[in-house]
Specification:
This protein is α/β, with parallel strands linked by helices and about 1250 residues long. The protein has 44 helices and 25 strands. The two termini are about 70 Å apart. The relative contact order is 0.08. It catalyses: ATP + H2O = ADP + phosphate + H(+); Couples ATP hydrolysis with the unwinding of duplex DNA by translocating in the 3'-5' direction.
Length: about 1250
């Protein structure tokens, strides 16, 4: 920690390039919060602060904990700090104290603790994981957690499908959707190992809330009823209502008993029948009353009170009438949660939420761990803290508390060590509410830490004109060309100004709130950005500092508006090709891309200078299409409509045909692809023949299906068939990534993207496809699994997200989401879809949860109650949720704007409602800008009217909702003119027809294939042949490591069969006695479409299913060749063999194991066996488990017809070595067995594998063969 008696000093080298605010932040001696505005050099300051603690304070590099939001940010910070210290050492006297400190840090920089908060939480968990039943070698993977929880949820739902309460909840919803939306969603979203469900507490809170709301409704009805039943004909209604009110009050009193804390949850019952009838009767009476028409002003006021009360009444009624079902389902949720947490502990697979919650619990409950960390850390630095939450704040407070404190709770601010915490963030850039970020935690930090105002306000990224625009639009500060002066002047002028006279701004202003009304904690408060002072010509000036002096002859912000002919505020559909006019979204895309093209062609900017930002990706494909149409290169971090273009589809269908050999649709697609190049009609004829000949010719690529082809077409078919057979043979040993790579490069598909300039834009689809394949390989899945993943992407039309891979194209327009753009900067930014409504919080799932009341369930409304609302707690939180969503949208708009260095374009459409058109009847503006101003004014007037009529109205569902009032402030209504110093332009977006669109397209530059071949023929005819050595693949399968045979003809690791058999088997195996039915099925496939390897895969799947209790999942490539009868016989044989194994000694031992894993994937460096080898042995172990005492057992299932265990000794030796390394066990503690599924015989190869030394140079594996001969 920084001690108060230390003299404040900053090394001159570190002081270079720092302004006054930055220097104060770097040298701050107290626990502080640095409010770092956009482009203010946050990373620059963070790195200087870290170096200052080392160089000037003498801290060891591993005593400073520097936490960032992402791994990428951590890597950037790591490299910057290292480079900074290195430069300091080079510029300093080697014998000086500062140089010695910096040099020591560089020598030990591998110990630097610059990491994400998730990574640090995982470190804390590993120190005490065993105390919480967690393996220290746990892994963190949200994707795998989601997959296995959904599988468990489906099995659990099927097991309880007859539960009446569950049936009441799901209504007509399918079981698989119930499993995902109820059981899986509850555990994934609202539960962790450290913080399981606490339904007892939640039910008490819920009952109290419902009772309070019910009482309020009864009072409202009591007050309003006399007003609404004041005529003679209403006397009977009033009399009946008085009876209902008496019953309603009785219901309110009865509520105290239904969730009594003294009654165990499993014994709680639903509402008694008599009270249920009272609830329904009361609701029916109030429904009639609130449906009356407003005859007088007094009537209208009463109805305005009663109608919202009725909505609350119905949602309360729904909760009460289903309370019994709720109490019945809660134990099921708890049982499922316990099951999932047990699996997490056994497998060591955790979610990120698990590790952070466990880390907090460890720090609170384990004082020894906490004390050790407190002593180890002298300083803690946290970047981007505005995107964190209270749990993460508590973790940091526990690490920074005074050494002597050991209380099992988060410390108060006065219990912290002085100067140990350094928070950096910007409340205006908190945009991860959907991930649990809470901006109010960051806002409260300054108050908690009693921190002085430490702000970084100078924007080094944007031009001065753009900074003025930011201040005017987001803070209501009038720009004068010098933002700092403007900000000061505006602050002084606003003192004592009436809120109504204050200029509008995107962010809320404190001055607009009534005296005594607190500023909402979830809103960001805007402070003006300033233009930095000119940088002195010194080293290490901040990146982007020169951006502040950019000049532009016109305003830097361009608001581009399309007047919609219909209300399409939320219309994000693509254009209908049959319509003459483009729809709004496509018209906007055409305009944006045309503007970008104009900027590029004028030479003002390069393509790489431009970013097109999206709030949602719904219309991204429209922009990609327009960019291709106009010949502009682009790069996207999210791939929309992945299967809409040929390259992905062609490769997918080829791989699908390998995995599913009888898929006629895939066969037809391959025939018309560039791999075969058949005309469509010829392909259809071949496909038709394939369907007819399916029984006699299971392989679709048979010449029997090409009888209608002649000449060149027949030759193409033969060539395609040869390629198909080659890849089928290779598919068993090659990785998915290798298969994709082969089709792209070796089979020549890459060249298909090079015939036209726009075709080159498709080439990067290969990179994305390859990355998906690589990820599939890393999870140990087969080609069939990869094809199934692609099929799921195709069926759901899902986008590819988080594809962070390096692409070759650098000079390209960037397509990126606003959230992903954070931290990036571009000279020109286009913000699209500004009129599209943000998706508010919806209550469409089976459950709803919040921090105040916990989990509540959305039971279908009862038929007896009209217009019944589903969930009282959602209704109570709806206004607050809308306000928080609006606040988040303001911040998101700010992040989008502040990515720009020079210019911002923001575009969208608007629709004039009938009310708006009424206001514009007298307005006639010939000037386009004035017309747009008057339209904006009408839209603002309509919005104000809505807000005045509804006290719960929350505007701000689109970017334009925030911008339009600010824009209209620059229009003088009296004179009908635009005010001076407007920081933006208003530009109309033309509505185009499809005919006009054709004129925009760039001319295509395509050469025919024949022309290219003619041009290139002389070159390759004169080229000399280059001989290259045949290289084998890098990966080796353990099954290929069979040792060479001995002179006796037996395995080199076995002895004569009779003696060997007597040792290993109860009786000698007889090949003739084993599974004749399977032999018959295998022998019926002359071309090997179904072999013993396929049956082995099926048998393994059945054995695995008996352990997991999940449905058997058979890979498509293993069963696709079988007819219905064959498949039934194979399944029955596999099931019988698996059950025999479970009954065996090994099976019973595995069933009761402490830890067990089926299909355990591994990679082992071949250098373990052959020094200098760069190969990798890659495989999957059928079954491995750990017994009491720490012994590991490896079981390899075999379906061989002839049993010779010795021939598998090499394979089992590799498995043994891999398992000992991966599980950190001594080699002697690993046993190895071969289990023959046909006979049930077990062979113990532990002794043989212990003696084995594999010679890879003699191992038999197939060398990699080129495909050049068949292409």
């Amino acid at each position: 920690m920084i001690r108060a008696d230390e003299r404040a000093f900053l090394h001159p080298f570190l002081e270079r390039g720092l302004n006054k605010e930055q220097r104060a932040a770097v040298m701050n001696e107290a626990n502080c919060v640095v409010a770092a505005g956009a482009g203010s050099g946050k990373t620059f300051v963070f790195a200087r602060r870290f170096a200052h603690l080392i160089v000037d304070k003498g801290f060891a590099v591993d005593t400073i904990l520097a936490l960032t939001f992402t791994k990428k940010a951590a890597a950037v910070m790591y490299s910057r700090i290292y480079a900074l210290l290195k430069k300091l050492v080079e510029s300093e006297d080697a014998h000086s104290l500062a140089a010695r400190h910096a040099k020591a840090a560089l020598e030990n920089f591998h110990k630097a603790r610059i990491q994400t908060l998730d990574s640090y939480c995982a470190f804390i968990l590993r120190t005490a994981s065993r105390l919480y039943g967690i393996r220290p070698d746990f892994s963190v993977d949200d994707v795998q957690i989601r997959e296995f929880v959904n599988k468990e949820a489906l099995a659990f739902t099927l097991g309880h499908k007859d539960n009446p309460s569950l049936q009441s909840l799901l209504g007509v919803q399918s079981l698989d959707k119930t499993a995902a939306d109820f059981f899986a969603a509850a555990v994934l979203n609202y539960s962790t190992i450290a913080r399981p469900f606490d339904f007892e507490t939640s039910l008490q809170k819920q009952r109290s809330a419902v009772q309070s709301v019910w009482g309020g409704v009864v009072k409202t009805v009591t007050d309003c009823a006399p007003v609404l039943a004041d005529t003679d004909e209403d006397s009977d209604v009033l009399k009946k209502l008085e009876e209902n009110l008496t019953d309603a009050k009785a219901v309110g009193e009865y509520m105290s008993t239904i969730a009594d804390a003294g009654i165990p949850l499993e014994k709680k019952k639903g509402v008694e029948k008599i009270f249920a009838q009272k609830i329904v009767s009361f609701a029916a009476a109030v429904y009639v009353l609130q449906k009356k028409s407003a005859r007088t002003a007094r009537y209208k006021d009463a109805l305005n009170e009663l109608r919202p009360a009725y909505n609350l009444l119905t949602s309360c009624a729904n909760y009460l009438l289903h309370f019994g079902d709720l109490c019945s389902l809660v134990p099921l949720l708890q049982e499922f949660e316990k099951k999932v947490n047990g699996r997490k502990r056994a497998s060591g697979l955790l979610s990120f939420k698990d590790i952070s919650s466990l880390a907090l619990r460890i720090l609170i409950e384990q004082p020894a761990v906490r004390c050790a960390e407190k002593k180890r850390l002298n300083a803690i630095m946290i970047d981007e803290f505005q995107d964190n939450n209270e749990q993460q704040r508590d973790i940091l407070f526990l690490l920074a508390e005074k050494i002597e404190r050991t209380a099992p709770s988060a410390p108060r601010p006065d219990e912290l060590c002085s100067g140990k915490l350094f928070f950096v963030g910007d409340e205006k850039q908190s945009i991860y509410l959907f991930r649990g970020a809470d901006v109010s935690v960051f806002r409260k930090l300054k108050e908690d830490l009693a921190s002085k105002d430490t702000a970084l306000s100078s924007n080094y990224r944007s031009s001065s004109a753009l900074i003025d625009a930011f201040n005017a639009l987001f803070g209501g500060f009038c720009g004068t060309g010098q933002s700092e002066q403007a900000g000061q002047a505006a602050t002084e002028d606003s003192l004592g100004t009436s809120p109504a006279l204050l200029p509008h701004s995107v962010f809320l202003q404190k001055e607009r709130f009534a005296p005594g009304t607190p500023f909402p904690p979830f809103e960001a408060e805007y402070t003006p950005l300033t233009v930095p002072e000119p940088a002195s010509p010194a080293e290490d000036t901040q990146t982007g500092a020169e951006a502040s002096v950019h000049k532009n002859s016109r305003p830097p912000v361009h608001v581009c508006l399309l007047q919609s002919e219909k209300n399409t505020e939320n219309d994000e559909d693509t254009a209908n090709a049959e319509n003459e006019k483009l729809n709004d979204a496509e018209s906007e895309a055409v305009f944006v891309v045309s503007e970008a093209a104009s900027l590029i062609k004028s030479g003002a900017y390069k393509a790489q200078d431009i970013a097109i930002l999206f709030r949602t990706y719904s219309n991204q494909s429209l922009y990609e299409a327009q960019l291709r149409l106009q010949g502009i290169p682009y790069a996207s971090e999210t791939v929309a409509d992945f299967f809409s273009d040929a390259p992905v589809n062609d490769i997918y269908y080829f791989l699908r045909l390998i995995a599913y050999p009888q898929d006629v649709h895939a066969f037809a697609a391959v025939l018309t692809s560039p791999f075969v190049r058949l005309p469509q009609q010829s392909a259809l004829e071949c496909a038709s023949s394939a369907e007819k000949n399916a029984a006699s010719s299971p392989c679709l690529f048979s010449m029997q299906n090409a009888e209608s082809l002649t000449g060149e077409e027949r030759a193409r078919f033969e060539k395609g068939a040869e390629l198909y057979r080659t890849l089928c043979d290779r598919s068993g040993e090659s990785s998915c990534a290798d298969m994709v790579d082969t089709l792209w490069y070796c089979a020549g598909y890459r060249y298909e993207t090079l015939w036209t300039e726009e075709g080159g834009l498709f080439s990067e689809l290969y990179d994305y496809l390859y990355e998906i394949a690589r990820n599939t390989d890393s999870r140990g899945k087969s080609l069939g699994g990869f094809v199934d993943e692609l099929a799921a992407l195709l069926a759901d039309n899902r986008r590819l997200n988080d594809m962070d891979i390096p692409l070759e194209r650098s000079d390209a327009v960037h397509l990126i989401g606003i959230h992903k753009s954070k931290g990036l900067e571009f000279p020109v930014v286009f913000i699209c879809g500004a009129s599209a409504k943000a998706r508010g919080e919806r209550n469409t799932d089976l459950l709803y949860a919040n921090d105040e009341w916990g989990i509540s369930l959305n039971f279908p409304p009862p038929d007896k109650i009209k217009d019944c609302k589903k969930n009282i707690f959602f209704d109570l939180m709806s206004v607050s949720a809308k306000q928080k969503a609006a606040a988040e949208l303001r911040r998101l708009l700010y992040v989008a704007f502040t990515r720009a260095e020079k210019e911002v374009y923001i575009s969208g459409s608007y629709y004039l409602s009938a009310d708006a058109k009424e206001l514009l009847k007298k307005e006639k503006a010939d000037d386009e800008t004035l017309r747009l101003f008057t339209h904006i004014g009408a839209l603002c007037a309509v919005a104000r009217k809505k807000a005045e009529a509804d006290p719960d109205y929350v505007g701000g569902t689109t970017f334009f909702d925030f911008l339009f009032p600010v824009i209209y402030d620059f229009f003088d209504e009296k004179s009908g003119t635009v005010k001076k110093n407007v920081p933006f332009t208003l530009e109309p977006i033309p509505a185009l027809s499809r005919a006009e669109l054709k004129n925009i397209a760039a001319p295509k530059k395509r050469q025919s294939l024949a022309a290219v071949q003619k041009k290139l023929r002389p070159l390759y005819e004169r080229a000399s042949a280059v001989q290259t050595p045949a290289l084998h693949g890098r990966y080796i399968s353990p099954s290929k490591l069979a040792p060479p045979e001995s002179d006796t003809g037996l395995s080199a690791f076995s002895v004569p069969q009779p003696k060997f058999a007597s040792v290993l088997f109860a009786s000698a195996p007889s090949p003739a006695a084993s599974a004749p039915l399977i032999d018959e099925i295998v022998s019926s496939f002359a071309n090997g479409e179904f072999g013993y390897n396929h049956f082995g895969t099926i048998a393994h799947a059945y054995a695995e299913a008996l352990f997991t209790a999940l449905p058997v999942r058979l890979p498509a490539e293993a069963v696709s060749a079988l007819n219905e009868t064959q498949l039934k016989n194979v399944k029955e044989a596999a099931q019988l063999m698996a059950e025999n194994f479970i009954r065996s000694d090994l099976g019973r031992e595995a069933k009761n194991a402490l830890w067990r894993k089926n299909e355990y994937a591994f990679k082992l460096a071949a250098e373990e066996y052959e020094p200098g080898s760069r190969d990798v042995i890659r495989g999957q172990i059928d079954l491995v488990y750990e017994s009491e005492g720490g012994t590991l057992t490896v079981v390899d299932f075999k379906t061989d017809a002839y049993e010779d265990p010795g021939r598998h000794a090499s394979q089992l030796a590799v498995y043994r070595r891999a398992v000992s390394l991966m599980r950190n066990k001594d080699f002697s503690l690993v046993r190895t067995y071969v289990y023959y599924l046909r006979s049930g015989h077990t062979a113990d190869l532990t002794a043989q594998t212990a003696k084995l030394k594999i010679d890879l140079s003699a191992a038999l594996f197939e060398p990699y063969s080129s495909l050049s001969g068949i292409l």
